Amino acid sequence: MDHVATLQAYDEQIRRNLDPDGPGVRVERVDGVVRRVGGSAHDWNAVLWSDLDAATADAAVAEQVRFFTALGREFEWKLYSYDRPADLSERLLAAGFTPEPPETVMVAEVDALPLDTAPPEGIELVPVTDAAGVRLMVAAHDRAFGTDGSALGRQVLDQLTTAPDTLAVVVALAGDEPVSSARIEFRPGTDFAGLWGGGTAAEWRGRGVYRSLVAHRARLAAARGVRRLQVDASDQSRPILRRLGFAELATTTPYVYRPGA
After folding, report:
1. Bridge partners of 255?
2. Which domains does the chain have, with CATH numbers?
3. Name one Pfam family in it (predicted).
4. How far is CA 201 from each of CA 141, 174, 204, rounded to the nearest angstrom?
5. pLDDT in tens, 212-250
6. Among candidate residues 62, 67, 97, 66, the one with its CA nearest the CA of residue 79
7. Is-contact 25 36, C-beta < 8 A?
8. Measured distance CA(179)–CA(76) in Å, rounded
């Protein structure tokens, strides 16, 4: 994979020129930033890309804080390792943002991935298509990450209901117990589909559940002619993805601003 060309395509297609990717979502370009404004109170809001320098950064950050605070929305500034100015992270901290753990942007060509990896014995992969399936997805998320996935569940159900062609969700069941879940988001007009989720309950880790979920979603992408898969990988998933053929493009750190916090 050509690292420079792939990073350029990712920056152009996913950060700078991404079309609205959900019901009621707006993608706005203003004051040197590209921002995603969610379509509902529980949707994700973010600054996706910026073109700033030392003279313009503080004013742009302050304007985004004012904008989302006026909406009463928490939002995330997705800071990438190649963004400028070089001290943008310090400026975000000074403005009241809280950093979350950094992730590694990893990309693979779909036709280079192993597509035939089956789930381990005792695991069934079940597509999520309705509210009952979303409840299983949220239960798997909460079990794997130890966090409240209810807002995520509402977002996913909204998207499945209003734009089902843009999303596929799968739950890994051990009998009747959800032990993992994963999503693939399709981005029409781009070379990329995004892989999300995949966290697995502790007792099932290291047994191939995550690998089977990657293969399952890669098959869905191949069937739709998607060229590349992209993951914001945690420290736990990065070694697995590297062994499967994903390459590291950059790092990204979510800086979160919570009005009134």
Report:
1. 77, 99
2. 3-103+253-257 (3.40.630), 109-250 (3.40.630.30)
3. Acetyltransf_1
4. 8, 11, 6
5. 999 999 999 999 999 999 999 999 899 999 999 999 999
6. 97
7. yes
8. 28
